Amino acid sequence: MKTSDFYFDLPPERIAQHPIERRDHSKLLVMDRQSGDIEHTTFSHLPDYLRAGDVLVINDTKVLPARIFGTKETGARVEFLLLEETAPKLWHCLVKPGRRARVGDRFDFGPMTAQITGLLADGLREVRLEYSGTLEPILDQIGTMPLPPYIHERLAEPGRYQTIYAKWAGSSAAPTAGLHFTPEVFEALAKKGVAIAKLTLHVGLGTFRPVKVEAIEAHHMHEEWYQLTDSQAAIINQAERVIAVGTTSVRTLESIVRKHGRIVADSDRTDIFIYPGYRFGAVDAMITNFHLPESTLVMLVSAFSSREHILNAYQSAIAEDYRFFSFGDAMFIQ
Predict the structure, then answer these.
(1) Cα-based angle 62, 243, 189 (whole degrees, multiple of 5)
(2) Residue 9: CB atoms within 10 Å
(3) Which residue range(s) make up the domain with 133?
(4) Are 160 and 151 in contact (CB under 8 A)?
(5) Tell me, what's the pLDDT at 100?
(6) Could you give the number of structural domains in the chain?
(7) What whole-number distance in Å separates Cα of residue 324 and Cα of residue 248?
(8) pLDDT at 210
(9) What is the pLDDT of residue 258?
(10) Quick one: CA dihedral 76, 17, 14, 60, positive or negative?
């Protein structure tokens, strides 16, 4: 298949620039994955579509304020985006402008310094950080939330780019399907007998790297770290239906089944790339946002239903004034 097969025209005004005032007041498009039939509702009504025995699988990763600005010894100002810690104080980073970040260069960030120790594929840099104490308080002091480049407005409340259940710090982007959940939604789900299982996948370049080849089979995903514990695997294995919240949960569950043949506790790295023709082994339904044209994420949801059904649903969402991308509205595909 071609990357261009997954293109759709999106009016710029449909790209959400800020979160809606109340998380669960976002719109929800409910789609039958087989027939493509569509209903329009709001996210607060999600529990109406779930039933006792369902297990909702959420990703409890936490976004780091990983965008930091430093000064080179020459005085030049450079932006770093911390993507993944590969060893103590050793990180893979995106650096802009890259021409100012050569091996051996040093940068000052106030309470922290950084030195470029290696050049990596896709323009990434290996960076050694030097600081006292722990990193999180330093990033809270000097960092900002790594919002996607299509969001141009300043985020007034950084907590709105976190799910309410975010726990384990390590992501450079939010698992955005989870942003719609509120305590009231979880309470309504519990009353219906819907169980919650948690996994962790730290979102990095693998999730948001654009596809730069025309033949999608030639695209290579960057690895991302995930973990599912014994207790949470046991909850999932009791499910009547496994409902993944977000593409990161989908990719984690499908990676585990591909590796082990069933859902078991596991901690590993995955570069799974799901596109039409893939046979799902773990997930029965999913909640997801509306994704960028020609992205790996729109390919994944097309694999779960069909390219035609997804692109038709997207056109319906545009006609109904849905908001797209990270701070946008949601789909429930069942």
Answers:
(1) 85
(2) 8
(3) 67-142
(4) no
(5) 86
(6) 2
(7) 18
(8) 87
(9) 98
(10) positive
Same domain, 194 and 124: no
Structure tokens at 39: 């209903």
C-alpha triplet 14, 15, 19: angle, nearest 5°:
110
Q: Are residues 80 and 205 in the same domain?
A: no
- Alpha helices, DSSP H, located in 35-77: none
Q: What is the pLDDT of residue 79?
A: 96
DSSP 275: -
165-168 long-range contacts, Cβ below 8 Å, gap at least 24? 165/58, 165/60, 165/198, 166/60, 166/61, 166/62, 166/63, 167/60, 167/61, 167/62, 167/198, 167/200, 168/60, 168/61, 168/62, 168/200, 168/202
**Is there a single domain that holds both residue 210 and residue 98?**
no
Q: What confidence score (pLDDT) does residue 257 get?
A: 98
d(CA 321, CA 317): 6
pTM of the shown model = 0.95
Q: How far apart are CA 6 and CA 23, in angstroms?
A: 28
From the list 77, 66, 80, 141, the residue with the least C-alpha distance to 116 is 80
Token representation of residue 148: 């996607």
Q: What is the pLDDT of residue 65?
A: 96
Within the chain, which residues score under 50 in pLDDT? none
Q: Residue 275: its pLDDT value, please?
A: 98
Which candidate, 28, 61, 7, places its Cα nearest to that of 248? 61
